[in-house]
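Progress note, project year one: complex with adenosine-5'-diphosphate.
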Amino acid sequence: MEDRVDDRTTELAVANANLRREVAERERIELALRENVARLQAILTSTVNGVITIDERGLIESFNPAAEQLFGFSANEVIGRNVTMLMPPPFADEHDGYLAAYQSTGVRRLIGIGREVLGKRKDGSTFPIELIVSEVALGARKIYSSIVLDITRRKAAEDSLQARTFELAEANRDLTHRTAETEMFVYSVSHDLRSPLVNLQGFSKELGKACDSLATLLSDERLPGDIRQTARTLLAGKMTKSLGFIQAGVLRLSNIIDALLRLSRAGRVEYRPQRVDVARTVARIVASLQGTIAEKRVDVRIGELPAVIGDATALEQVFANLIGNALNYLDPSRPAVIEVGTSSGEIAGFVTYFVRDNGLGIPAAHFQKIFQVFQRVHTGVGPGEGIGLAIVARVVERHRGKVWVESAVGEGSTFFVRLPRGI
Ligand code: ADP
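Model obtained:
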């Protein structure tokens, strides 16, 4: 009998201990839960983003302080009301549609994505927001929680960037238009100057012939000696000299007009992009200049020249001008070396060619100017119209590339041409 009582007592003691453990465990869980809830509450309260939860019918269940700030409503004013009160049309109508569609089809169009919409404040004003919606299952019930980010500043930045891009595109179009107009103007003026120039050429030739006939006439013994003498002096002196000046002037003008026509053509001709074997192009140019190269005893060194996509004729013009200039502006006081190659450290997608000489060099103040029309540095060195580099610049620009020079007076110049591998 006593034994049984003892057993029972032990059983009860064990059950008691178990119960106490369970209670302690439950208290621990409850504390942890309460802590978690408090933590969540603290996060919701302190977060700078609005957090709104709604039920399946779209009625607001919670509205954190950041949401109150954003929308200008207090939580009390919105809880239990349809969330569409925070949206201007057409978002408000769409929202009801989404919810209804989701209810009947299960298609979640709003869940998980950051969507840019407009929010409506208590005072009726609207502002851009980004919504990130998630679905939360609470037992058999579902609620939707939305994080609301005010993107007014981001939008303003995007808008001003867009406006700036638009402005730049406009300016670019304007510039292209004006360049085309200038080129057309240069073309028509040069073209119009051609015919009077041809007349001048023809008539000065006629004048030359007339002078020859006059010289023959003046050998007629029947003319008085003093008149013959004076006429001969006039003919051989002033007249011949003047005729010479006229012809030289006409030739120079004709060269300028030709160069201007070439320049306007460089901007106007339609490009036919194709693979251009630059190595072969350069070899052809060097071969055509062989006479000058031999005469000036130039050591021409050609490195690796990869192909690019571009207009074959235009690119040939570029290299012909640069190599031609390298030959024109050599320094006779030292053995001439001209190198053509590609420079290392290239930018991906581009090839940078160079044409280097050890000639006269160019003062730094002229590095930019020489690419403009009629800008010459070494006027006394040789003939030239000061248009070659302007043509180079225009062609390179049309290939969306870049041309520049590095040079030191008395040491030489290196012209760089960077071209995209494809245009
Ligand atoms: P042009 O050679 O007909 O004068 P360009 O437009 O080709 O016209 O060149 C403009 C000027 O730039 C030249 O007059 C010359 O003074 C200078 N220049 C061009 N290339 C070189 C070079 N390789 N070395 C020194 N000066 C150069």
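DSSP finds ten helices and twelve strands in the chain.
The CA atoms of residues 129 and 150 lie 5 Å apart.
No further modelling is planned for this target in the current period.
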